[in-house]
Amino acid sequence: GWEKPYAGTVTREGVNRVGWVFQNPYGVAERTALDHVVFPLLAKGMRRKEAEPKALEAMGLFDLEYAADRRFSDLSGGEAQRLMLARAVCSKPDMLLVDEPTAQLDTRTAHSVSHVLNNLSGQGMIVLVATHDPDTRDACDRVLDLADYAPGGSKSQEPELEE
Q1: Which of 1, 69, 128, 132 is the most buried (most CB within 10 A)?
Q2: Which of the two residues, 114 and 66, has the higher pLDDT score?
């Protein structure tokens, strides 16, 4: 709702909560990785004692359980990027917007992250990924290449999703 579409309309049905994960991870340097992931659960009113196992489970999706007690400032770029994904998952969004989720990851870890995001989409969460990485693109169920639909681009009709 921040920008008016170039053409057509955007309708958001059944999406009440939107989560964001930016390409460049941000966090509080002195707080632990677990503090970052548990935060959305605490914000929903959960007690820390019941929130921590759920946060650790989300961290486990991204192979980060080992880093729970490490300070954010001590994490590598790839660890911090995966940490932000785990935090977003804990917020239980209906739609998750993710910018370049594998940009700072090695090939094996990138494949794992793409697999987790695909699984989340299979569990009812809408996962929208912006990427330049062909392997991440290949892990997606549907692909919309925005370059084909830019003003003055080669296609004039509304975009169709590749299945």
Answers
A1: 128
A2: 66
